[in-house]
Amino acid sequence: MRAFAMLKIGQTGWIQKERPACGPLDAIIKPLALAPCTSDIHTVYEGALGDRQNLTLGHEAVGVVDEVGSEVKDFKAGDRVIVPAITPNWRTHAIEEGVPPQHSEGMLSGWKYSNIKDGVFAEYFHVNDADMNLALIPDGMTLEQAVMIPDMVTTGFHGVELAKVEFGSTVVVIGIGPVGLMSVAGAVLRGAARLFAVGSRPLCTEVARKYGATDIVNYKNGDIVKQIMDATHGHGADHVIIAGGPAEVLEQAIYICKPGGVIGNVNYFGEGEFLRIPREAWGVGMGHKQINGGLTPGGRVRMERMASLVMNRRFDPALLVTHKFHGLDRLETGLELMHHKPADLIKPVILV
114: exposed, middle or buried (C-beta count within 10 Å: 0-12, 13-18, 19+)? Predict the structure, then answer.
């Protein structure tokens, strides 16, 4: 089969691979829609995960079940399914010990696609523990909506969960690419009152307002810490969600967060060895400013719940989709868009 792969750091291309084998608990999927991600860019062009050679890229997909293993009970060939970007092995001692499933076989082990195994950018791809990791695409859901759920929706919403957003609170979302825009939507659903969206691209700020942002902070207009502290009369934010940006955004979030506030990070820091915490802004270690960073949950129930929010019209993730291409061959075009991020881009989708 054909697969679009990372050949080495800084280089991608099409290669031939064997169709993946299907174990008794597994499924083989033929993609219907795929979406390149900024994480793919970190992996390929920054070498954030180290060198990977001939590794199939991609972790955002919906598709049709082509084959299931002998012990799969709930899915069959022909089912149209959402495939989460995070596919833990759910049968582990670590989960029984309370380790989040995302890390059930070690740090970030639930993030398998284009990390520790071949990704979804191929004619066929593999899903482990299919009954626990697949979810049916609801009738009436578009492929554009569905393919945003595996990563953009769930990751953005996880930032809201990590920041513990409460009703009536003041929230800042730093980075309003597709994940940050989903954090805006999720924070509104969680009851945010005043919501600052930090970003500069006009299209993203326009969509942020559609999702419920009350204030736009453009970092090109000056220090975002000063802008937000001035706007809140020195109070700062109750909750800060980091959804994008360089390493410095963690420092900014700590300055913006009030004592007793909570920071939720879902940003993929792809470069550097360390992240800095400003000593005084963190109350010399005693400021009760919580910092929670997490990989989004995966699995079937999570996908079903995200899909239910869409089907019940709580928000529409299709607003993220600015570019649509037809045919597997257009994957390279979509990936390069995510690499260079033109002003009119939020998210590209390839309809296979």
Answer: buried
Angle among Cα 129, 89, 162 to the nearest 5 degrees reads 120
Instruction: Supply the pLDDT for residue 194.
Output: 98
The dotted CATH code for 2-152+296-351 is 3.90.180.10
Strands of 11-16's sheet in order across: 11-16, 2-8, 55-56
Cβ atoms 344, 320 nearer than 8 A: no
Closest CA to 343 of 213, 202, 222: 202
Exposure letters 320-346 (e unless 16+ CB within 10 A, then b): bbbbebeebebbbebbebbeeeeeebb
Question: Does the pLDDT at position 70 exceed 80?
Answer: yes
**Torsion-angle region of 264 (φ positive above 0: left; ψ -120 to 50: alpha; else: beta):** beta
How many Cβ atoms sit within 10 Å of the Cβ of residue 199?
A: 28
Residues present in the chain in total: 352
CA atoms of 237 and 10, how far apart (whole Å) = 39
Give the residue-averaged pLDDT of 292-320: 97
CA distance 111 to 267: 15
> Which has the higher per-residue pLDDT, 235 or 52?
235
Closest by Cα among 276, 275, 283 to 257 = 283
**Residue pointed to by tokens 């995070």:** 86
List the chain domain ranges. 2-152+296-351, 156-293
Strand pairing report for 135-136 and 125-127:
unpaired
| Confidence bin at 49 (pLDDT 50/70/90) | confident
Q: Are strands 125-127 and 170-174 parallel, antiparallel or unpaired?
A: unpaired
Please give the share of the chain, as a percent, with pLDDT higher than 70: 100
pLDDT score for 29? 98
Class in CATH terms, 156-293:
alpha beta
Give the 3-state secondary structure of residue 291: strand
Which of these, 188, 181, 149, 182, lies nearest to 165 by C-alpha position? 188
* Ramachandran category for residue 131: left, alpha or beta (phi over 0 → left; psi -120 to 50 → alpha): alpha
